[in-house]
Structure formats: C-alpha cells, structure tokens
C-alpha cells in the first residue's frame, strides 16, 4: 500500500481517538446548566458555541477551575469561541445561565450548541493555523502530516499513562480500604468476645449472689 495512503488511514484512526466533545440541548429560561471535564497539565482547550437569539432573553457563560478561578466569561452571547489552558491537572466547569429580562416575561426555550476540543485536537491543523505551524517548523505538507501524527501519538501515550496512574491509585485505595475493613472487623470481633466474656462472668457472680447456682 502507498505510504501516503497508510499515513492518511492512520491519521483518520488517530483523529477518531482524539479528545473532544460536542453537545446540543434546549435550555429553559432562567435556568443554569454546567459541564465538567478533567484536564491534564499544560493542556490547551478551545471551544465554540452557538445560542439561538430570543427577544427579552439572554444567555451568559462562565468557565471556572476547581478553585473557582474564572478562566473565561462573557455575557449575552450568540456565537463565538473561547480558549484557555491549564498548568496543572484540574477539573474545569463551563456554565451557561439563561436570564429573562424582566419578571413578567416567562421566556422561551433556547437551543445551545457547544463544541469543546482539548489537547492536540485543539491545535486545529487546518487552514491558516497549519500554515503558521508549518512556517514555524519549516515543514513540507507530508512532514506536517507526520508532525500531526507525532502529536497525536504523544497525546495517546500520555492518556494511557494517566489511565495507568488512575488505575494504580484506585488499586492502592482498594488495598487500603480492604486493610481498614479487615482491621475494623477484627477489632469488632475482639470487642464482642470481650463483651460476651464480661457478660458471662457478671451473670455467674449475680446468680451466685442470689444463690441460684453453686
């Protein structure tokens, strides 16, 4: 098979494995909807959004990290983009808030579309950005594809490392929990044995005092 065709097939396969998410939903007036996602350190995030416009009603969005720091924010949105990056492993939250302009207006349902890309996918190897990256690295078109392939491969390797790290952490947590349960059960059993022994001794003394037994 032609190497270029093989490379194209591999690029398509890796693109399917790339990290990203898009969602579309209908939002009730005067309501709030939030989306959360985990991010590795030094990860770029890009997103696009579209909101149907309705008179006397607006939608705002705000993006925060786990420490409540605002990463991006905008009011009365219709369509646009946002970009931010995180230095450390964190969980970011993007919230959309629907507001009716006055209390007498009940509002109407608005359709919202959000497309979020992270990591390598956020670099967007298409159009003018490709030209910029190619110019920065002085790459030919085929070399540009190889560069993209390398970035995707590194992203997949990092993802597997993170999965292995989480699996190790979960295993350690399970081992720790199992040991705690074992020692707690042993402690409860010893307490029951001690309590049963004390009850037997107490009853023997009580019955002897009442001269019910010898």
Question: How are the elements arranged and paired?
Answer:
Layout: H1 3-17, E1 20-27, E2 32-39, E3 43-51, E4 57-64, E5 70-74, E6 79-86, E7 90-100, E8 110-118, H2 127-137, H3 141-209
Antiparallel strand pairs: 1-8, 2-7, 3-6, 3-8, 4-5, 4-7
Subcellular location: Membrane
Protein name: Transmembrane emp24 domain-containing protein bai-like
Keywords: Developmental protein, Membrane, Signal, Transmembrane, Transmembrane helix
CATH class categorisation of the domain at 19-124 = Mainly Beta
Note the run of SSEs as H and E: HEEEEEEEEHH
Spans with pLDDT under 50 lasting ≥5 residues? Answer: 3-19, 127-131
Contiguous helical run count: 3
Q: Judging from the principal axes of the Cα atoms, what is the shape?
A: elongated
Q: Under the CATH scheme, which architecture of the domain at 19-124 would be assigned?
A: Sandwich
CATH structural fold name of the domain at 19-124: Jelly Rolls
Helix-strand category: alpha+beta
Question: In a few lines, what is going on in this structure?
Answer:
With about 210 residues, the protein is α+β, with helices and mostly antiparallel strands.
Give short descriptive properties of this protein.
214 residues, alpha+beta, Jelly Rolls, 4-stranded antiparallel sheet, 31% strand, disordered N terminus, transmembrane helix
Write structural notes for this entry.
The chain has a domain of 106 residues: Jelly Rolls (Sandwich), CATH 2.60.120. The longest helix has 69 residues. Helix 1 runs parallel beside helix 3. The strands form 2 sheets. Strands 1-8-3-6 form a 4-stranded antiparallel beta sheet, with no helix packed on it. It is an alpha+beta fold and 214 residues long. The N terminus is likely disordered. It is elongated. It is built from 3 helices and 8 strands; from the N terminus they run H-E-E-E-E-E-E-E-E-H-H.
């Amino acid at each position: 098979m032609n190497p270029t065709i093989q490379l194209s097939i591999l690029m398509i396969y890796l693109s399917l494995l790339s990290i990203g998410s898009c969602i579309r939903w209908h939002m009730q007036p005067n309501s709030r909807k939030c989306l959360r996602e985990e991010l590795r350190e030094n990860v770029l995030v890009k997103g696009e959004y579209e909101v149907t416009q309705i008179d006397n009603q607006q939608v705002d969005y705000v993006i925060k990290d786990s420490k409540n720091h605002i990463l991006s924010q905008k009011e009365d949105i219709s369509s646009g983009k946002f970009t931010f990056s995180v230095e450390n492993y964190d969980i970011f939250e993007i919230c959309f808030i629907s507001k009716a302009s006055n209390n007498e207006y009940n509002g109407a349902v608005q359709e919202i579309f959000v497309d979020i890309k992270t990591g390598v996918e956020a670099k967007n190897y298409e159009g003018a950005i490709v030209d910029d990256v190619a110019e920065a690295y002085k790459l030919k078109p085929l070399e540009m594809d190889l560069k993209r392939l390398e970035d995707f491969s590194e992203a997949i390797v990092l993802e597997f490392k993170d999965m292995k790290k989480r699996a190790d952490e979960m295993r350690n947590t399970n081992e720790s929990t199992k040991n705690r349960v074992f020692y707690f059960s042993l402690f409860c059993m010893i307490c029951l044995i001690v309590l049963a022994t004390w009850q037997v001794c107490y009853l023997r003394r009580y019955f002897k005092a009442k001269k019910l037994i010898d």
